[in-house]
Specification:
Catalytic activity: ATP + H2O = ADP + phosphate + H(+)
CATH class of the largest domain: Alpha Beta
CATH superfamily of the largest domain: P-loop containing nucleotide triphosphate hydrolases
Distance between the termini: 36 Å
Family: Belongs to the DNA2/NAM7 helicase family. SDE3 subfamily.
Shape: globular
InterPro entries: DNA2/NAM7-like_C, DNA2/NAM7_AAA_11, MOV-10-like_beta-barrel, MOV-10/SDE3_DEXXQ/H-box, P-loop_NTPase, SF1_C_Upf1
Number of domains: 5
Biased composition (Basic and acidic residues): 1006-1015
Structural class: alpha/beta
Subcellular location: Cytoplasm
Radius of gyration: 33 Å
Oligomer: single chain
Length: 1015
């Protein structure tokens, strides 16, 4: 079999002319079709499809209102509903519902119908020789061949012509027994003599089978043949194939092919009806905000003045050159510009502040832009006394996140374009916020309409800028070297007899960390507790704090964490100190109802009930103060002297940005203050919204940057600069094995109670009863709807529900809702899963990877005392992961587009290390295996027998290429498959055999363009 060279189609050229593939093809330059011989080229050029492409009628329309071409893929109906189109129609005084016209081409341009884009004439030759155009040309040729092969021809009529063979949604039980559809084949020409030579499916999969009466030698008007197609499948998912029927005209000795697509969805019809998209996905279009030239100040909430700050924060506005660079171009160009023109050439103690201030501005620019997507038009306000209540869609899901003290701009309908009223947020409820405006704000009636803009709260960013501006930047804290990190490893015996928490008494690594921290000389380099999943890093840090307090009567400690939940966990474990020694600082706007009752005695509130700080003399008497990293600025803000704290501890340090950690260090530390960091840089880092800021290093936490230095090597620096905890008290050894070897050098030891970790050994759900890891292979479909860019997958959601029901129904392996956690990377899938599980398992926690990392789970444990059903907050024995992505658009999509952030090593690590006893991963292996890390994990599970569903499509015993490139190989394979199909169809359908009818006018009715490039 000889096919067109994939490299020729991918790259526009082939470096190896003797590669064995075909190179002698003709390309129709006006429309890009690939023709295998002169006969086909002539046939193609005479076709209506060719003429329609040449004339711009096939893929695009022209809008007379907007004077632009509109792709039929994007949809004419979507275009005419757009805001820009309707605005222009109003300005022109015409009806926006105009009919589509033939596509036009701008002067000096040539319209490429293959790519649906106008090309300047001088660039036409380079365009048609480009890799992208070559791929799309092949797709167009494939579509033409597929369309032609699907037509009835030579007098043979095959029923189900319009829809092919679509089984629709078949329940799992019915698919297991076998579902059947029938094609009827007739010869409509009395004098022709045609026989059915063969009927088979293009794939070798047993999911579809075909049978027919082979005893009928010839088709005639009086005799027809019924072809039975049987679907037999035990697993959920989407199944597609192609039935190829080969006929022969016995008098002409000419063979030809008629094909019919076959598809089926195996699953629950009820689930599909409940979860299907309610409206088609339409990308949200951002319209630039008009400048706010006249803003009427609002009334700030009382909590703003609850803390007696003695100084003012710097404004630290984004410099114009940085804002301009970010507004002008793409992320790649902006990243290069910042590296070459704005950022210092080296990152050191002298340039540290400038470097990170720039990254903060980059991130701020993106955050401000992201808020625009939540702007609301034509909404109403509800007034109660001096407050106006605004309903905010998505508020309960923190989309957007709104806190007391934030500012929301409101513009009454009909106001001057630049005039806005500033509303300060005084209350935040589940679905609405309470705003307070200037007294000049008037609501004429309850039906008044408003435009709403969400503004970024810059206070946290200003606090970080303030810290970075501090003149304190010692090498020992920012860039410690081996000469700074001196001394020998302290003996564990110095603290072993005095350990408070007996759980760590026999844990050598934990004891060493405690001994090393307690023995630090004043002014030492930062010490790191490297705590992989389930190893007890917070327990170790808490014990270290208590030992420091025991050994040093003058010690005063500031403890920070990136989140309130992580900070609350530290307070709960230090509560033995009592509220005379331990103080928990909250931001004044913190809602009291969100604070665990057990934490409240360690706080201070004003007479109005807002969180604050006691008088300075009392604050100085506390031996331990706990806050979030950002709120730690309160100490400097109220005038506490630098050096008051002998130690700064940062828990979950891997989840905070470096500027956030610097708030405590650069404003409060002096030359003697010691810094201790606890975390795991192999798990999720801080959430950074800007791709430019991520590329430039803002996503790399302070602890990760330090641990990348040779001084913090886990072996060489053991006990002196770092201790790695190695005993895992959470997971079964088989769950731990793969991430242990991939991320932690194979040093982790499974030490959890077997009573818990082996709870599902022998369970009938497992493919291998002794291996509690299960990959459920499912070929589903990822969807989006309305204007949400988040993906969901109904097939996977339905499969998750099936596993939940099976677990709860098993009387031998008893499982409650509290035992199960479900992780999925997409918000839309979280919502679908909660919806589908609500009637059967409402107590199951469903959330993102971030929600399952340590601090949130710990927060739930703290709150257990405050919640009636506290049993639902224990750790999860079972974790089910729904990966969602199941794209088949391999020809045009790269790995990033196909997998999204599923292909993130840290997300992967967190997701697969949450389970105690049973890990179930549901996903499309053909997509997941494009990523080398996922491919390795799938190979691991398959090799141990932990696999259900359709088998892998690759050799799981082959060595994984960790440099990647699997997506490019799949593209080449897909192109070669299309090539081969097109060649066969042209040989058997386009060379001497004609259709019964001319091209249909609606030529693209059955083509959904699965390979179209998406912006």
């Amino acid at each position: 079999m000889v096919v067109v060279c994939p490299q020729l189609l991918l790259n526009g050229a082939c470096a190896d002319g003797a590669c064995g593939y075909r190179h002698d093809v003709q390309i129709c330059r006006p429309c890009g079709a690939i023709c295998y011989n002169a006969t086909f080229y002539q046939t193609h050029c005479a076709s209506q499809r060719h003429h329609k492409r040449v004339n711009g009628l096939l893929d695009t329309f022209h809008c007379s209102v907007c004077q632009t071409n509109v792709s039929t893929v994007d949809g004419w109906a979507i275009h005419v509903r757009g805001k820009k189109h309707n605005t222009l129609a109003r300005q022109q005084g015409v009806d926006p519902d105009v009919p589509p016209e033939e596509a036009s081409t701008l002067p000096g341009h040539v319209f490429c119908n293959v790519c649906s884009v106008g090309i300047p004439q001088q660039h036409w030759n380079s365009h048609v020789n480009s890799r992208s155009h070559g791929r799309k040309s092949l797709v167009a040729s494939y579509e033409a061949a597929f369309e032609e092969a699907g037509k009835n021809k030579h007098g043979i009529d095959v029923s189900h012509e319009d829809d092919g063979l679509d089984f629709g949604i078949v329940d799992v039980e019915d698919a297991l027994q076998g579902a059947t559809m029938t094609l009827t084949v007739r010869n409509t020409v009395p004098t022709s003599r045609v026989s059915l030579v063969d009927a088979k499916f293009s794939s070798q999969s047993p999911r579809f089978s075909v049978s027919y009466d082979t005893s009928v030698p010839l088709l005639s008007c009086s005799r027809s043949i019924n072809i039975s197609v049987v679907l037999r499948q035990q697993y959920r998912g989407h199944y597609d194939d192609r039935l190829e029927m080969v006929f022969e005209d016995t008098s002409l000795k000419q063979r030809f092919v008629i094909i019919r697509p076959v598809k089926a969805i195996v699953g629950s019809r009820a689930d599909y009806e409940a979860l299907k998209p309610k409206s088609p996905y339409v990308p949200r279009k951002r319209t630039p905000r008009t400048p706010e030239t006249d803003v009427v100040p609002g009334v700030a909430p009382p909590s703003v003045k609850a803390v007696p700050y003695v100084g003012q924060l710097p404004h630290a506005r984004i410099p114009p050159n940085i804002a301009g660079a970010l507004s002008r171009g793409q992320a790649v160009r902006a990243t290069s510009y910042f590296r070459n023109s704005i950022l210092p050439s080296q990152l050191n103690s002298e340039t540290h502040a400038r470097y990170y201030k720039t990254l903060l501005w980059v991130e701020e620019h993106r955050m401000e832009n992201d808020l625009q997507m939540y702007d609301i038009t034509d909404t109403k306000l509800t007034r109660h006394n001096q407050y106006y209540y605004l309903a905010v869609p998505g508020l309960a899901e923190n989309r957007p996140s709104v806190l007391v003290g934030d500012i929301i701009l409101v513009q009454p309908s009909g106001s001057a374009p630049g005039r806005w009223f500033e509303g300060h947020v005084h209350f935040v409820r589940r679905d609405e916020v309470g705003l307070c405006f200037h007294t000049s704000f008037r609501q004429q009636s309850a039906g008044d309409l408003y435009t709403v803009r969400f503004k970024l709260n810059r206070i946290p960013l200003r606090r970080q800028h303030q810290a970075l501006d501090a003149a304190f930047h010692p090498d020992r804290l920012l860039f410690p070297t081996q000469t700074i990190i001196q001394g020998t490893r302290p003996s564990r015996s110095t603290v072993q007899p005095h350990i408070y928490n007996r759980l760590i008494a026999g844990n050598e690594a934990q004891l060493q960390a405690v001994a090393s921290i307690a023995s630090l000389r004043p002014g030492s380099a930062p010490f790191v507790i490297f705590g992989p999943p389930g190893t007890g890093k917070t327990i170790t840090m808490v014990e270290s704090i208590r030992q420091v307090l025991r050994l040093n009567p003058r010690a005063c400690i500031l403890v920070c964490a990136p989140s309130n939940s992580a900070a609350d966990l530290v307070v709960s474990r230090l509560s033995i100190l009592g509220n005379s020694q331990l103080f928990r600082f909250y931001a004044p706007f913190r809602n009291k109802d969100l604070v665990p009752d057990s934490i409240l005695p360690f706080t201070y509130r004003t007479e109005t009930g807002h969180f604050s700080v006691p008088p300075m003399a009392i604050v100085k008497r506390y031996r331990v103060i706990v806050s979030t990293c950002v709120s730690a600025s309160f100490a400097h803000g109220i005038g506490m002297p630098r050096g008051h704290f002998t130690h700064v501890f940062v828990d979950e340090a891997g989840q905070a940005t470096e500027p956030e950690v610097m708030i405590a260090i650069k404003t409060m530390a002096d030359n003697d203050t010691n810094v201790v960091l606890s975390g795991d840089p192999k798990q999720l880092g801080p959430i950074i919204r800007s791709a430019v800021a991520r590329d430039l290093g803002l996503e790399k936490s302070y602890i990760e940057r330090l641990m990348a230095r040779p001084e913090y090597d886990e072996t060489a620096g053991y006990g002196v600069s770092v201790v790695k905890l190695v005993k895992n008290f959470r997971s079964h050894e088989s769950i731990l094995k793969f991430p242990n070897e991939r991320f932690y050098r194979g040093e982790l030891q499974a030490c959890a109670e077997t009573k818990v970790t082996h709870a599902y050994i022998g369970c009938t759900i497992l493919a291998n009863p002794d291996f509690p890891v299960l990959i459920h292979s499912i070929s589903g479909k990822d969807d989006r709807e309305a204007s949400s860019p988040s993906f969901f997958n109904i097939d996977e959601a339905s499969q998750v529900k099936a596993y939940v029901l099976a677990l709860k129904a098993d009387r031998r392996f008893r499982t409650s809702d509290a035992d199960i956690g479900i992780i999925t990377p997409y918000h839309a899938q979280c919502l679908r899963l909660r919806s589908i599980l609500r009637p059967v398992a409402d107590g199951i926690k469903v959330g993102s990877v971030e929600e399952f990392q340590g601090q949130v789970r710990a927060y739930l444990r703290i709150h257990a005392a405050n919640i009636a059903n506290a049993s639902t907050l224990q750790e999860r024995k079972v974790i089910i992961v729904s990966t969602v992505r199941s794209s088949r658009e391999f020809v045009e999509y790269d790995l990033k587009h196909t997998l999204g952030f599923v292909a993130n090593p840290r997300r992967f690590n967190v997701a697969v290390t949450r389970a105690q006893a049973l890990l179930i991963v549901i996903g499309d292996p053909d997509v997941l295996s494009l990523d080398p890390l996922w491919r390795s994990f799938l190979n691991y599970a398959h090799g141990r027998g932990g696999w259900k569903g359709p088998p892998p499509s690759w050799d799981t015993g082959a060595t994984v290429d960790h440099t990647g490139g699997y997506d490019q190989r799949l593209k080449g394979s897909a192109l070669a498959d299309m090539n081969e199909f097109t060649r066969r169809m042209e040989m058997m359908t386009l060379n001497g055999v004609t259709s019964d009818s001319a091209d249909d006018e609606d030529i693209d009715v059955n083509v959904d363009r699965p390979w179209r490039e998406v912006e």
